[in-house]
Description:
Layout: E1 2-5, E2 8-11, H1 15-26, E3 31-34, H2 39-43, E4 50-51, H3 53-61, H4 66-71, E5 73-75, E6 77-82, E7 85-90, H5 91-94, E8 100-102, H6 105-118, E9 122-124, E10 128-133, E11 141-146, E12 149-154, E13 157-160, E14 178-194, E15 202-205, E16 212-218, E17 221-228, H7 239-250, E18 263-277, E19 280-281, E20 284-286, E21 292-293, H8 301-322, H9 326-329, H10 331-353, H11 360-375, H12 377-388
Helix pairs in contact: 1-6, 1-8, 8-10, 11-12
Amino acid sequence: MIRKRTQVGIVGAGPAGLLLGHLLxxxxxxxxxxxxxxxxxxxxxxxxxxxxxxxxxxxxxTGVGDRLLREGLVHxxxxxxxxxxxxxxxxxxxxxGKSIVVYGQxxxxxxxxxxxxxxxxxxxxxxxxxTLHDVDTSSPRLRFRLNGEEIELCCDVxxxxxxxHGVCRSxxxxxxxxxxERAYPFAWLxxxxxAAPTRDELIYAYHERGFALYSMRSPQITRxxxxxxxxxxxxxxxxxxxxxxxxARLETDEGWSLREGPILEKGVxxxxxxxxxxxxxGRLFLAGDAAHIVPPTGxxxxxxxxxxxxxxxxxxxxxxxxxxxxxxxxxxETCLQRVWRAEHFSWWMTSMLHRFPDDPFQQKLQRSQLxxxxxxxxxxxxxxENYVGLPLSPGPETLGDAHDARSLFSxxxxxxxxxxxxxxx
Length: 425
Ligand SMILES: Cc1cc2nc3c(=O)[nH]c(=O)nc-3n(C[C@H](O)[C@H](O)[C@H](O)COP(=O)(O)OP(=O)(O)OC[C@H]3O[C@@H](n4cnc5c(N)ncnc54)[C@H](O)[C@@H]3O)c2cc1C
């Protein structure tokens, strides 16, 4: 067996693992990232696409935001659509100047992999059979196979960034943690279509046939979702049927219509809320989907992953600089405050916008809530505050070097709702 050593062993090269490696590298902390898929696979895995303002600021401030600044689409509002018409919520006005940016998760992954390679950091793809050992000691170890060789990686700390189906969470003894979970009686059928968007902001549609979401990934590509049954058979959905259903749920009495195009990808994603508590055990720290899942309605999953690793990187900086463990000890508690806010918001958006089968009482409540949100500035402001996102962590934030902060916030003033497809300069 080959033995190696590093300060932080990171399992998973999704947004959480790659960003943690990047932030720690900037602080002079050595890491090894293990990923069981190929580089090509992770760089083309289409998932989330909405970045909160604080996530954008962090990526830009730490030097991995150049392409994001060029190609990301700044959005200042969203639309809620119900009863045959749309209602725009001006997120920027309602939140005191913040906005969101649409930039595909796979693009962030590509940018972070490029930065990792440029920094000559270790990033091992297609590792097999990762196992965790001695996580409750000061010398935790990871074992895995790579190119037929058994490797043992001795670490000071292990970061479990391996998503919901990874192996790290199960290295915590069941008696040391509690699980909080909610399942929903529906799923999302998502498509990526080669069709220029006919709208420059996201549309959340509440419809008697079920929820639909209109979003985009670039000026040429739309990303659309339909509420479907949790066990939906994708084979039953021809392209024709998907478009028919999208037209029915998204079109309004005001004449807006959807542009069709070749469907490049389709898939069904289950909806779930899940939190494990605490998200740390001994020298094992979970981050992102490994620790918590939200239904995608609030666009929070990737943003939570980013916030977790930001908090963890600061705690590890203090730990490796002076041996101080206060921030590390508080890691779980610090992250979970933000996680539960996002859990609530995601559950609330999901509950307000989806059709619950055979529940007329719920439908009356939903209409009342939707009317309230679009008519009450206070209710709208609450939605906007949560949607654009809360600070990454409590207390003052140090996003990066002053030098790197050059473009922070500068994009806020560069676009208005009336300019179509405003991109960062
Ligand atoms: C199918 C799917 C669709 C989604 N769609 C949306 C969406 O449309 N909108 C939205 O807002 N959010 C969406 N999300 C949520 C969002 O994408 C996640 O919150 C985000 O990916 C979290 O990042 P992460 O780094 O924590 O986990 P992940 O991105 O899951 O990364 C974990 C990484 O660990 C690797 N890994 C797993 N097990 C091992 C192992 N044993 N050894 C080594 N490596 C391992 C995985 O291959 C992966 O690269 C979706 C999530 C999923 C799963």
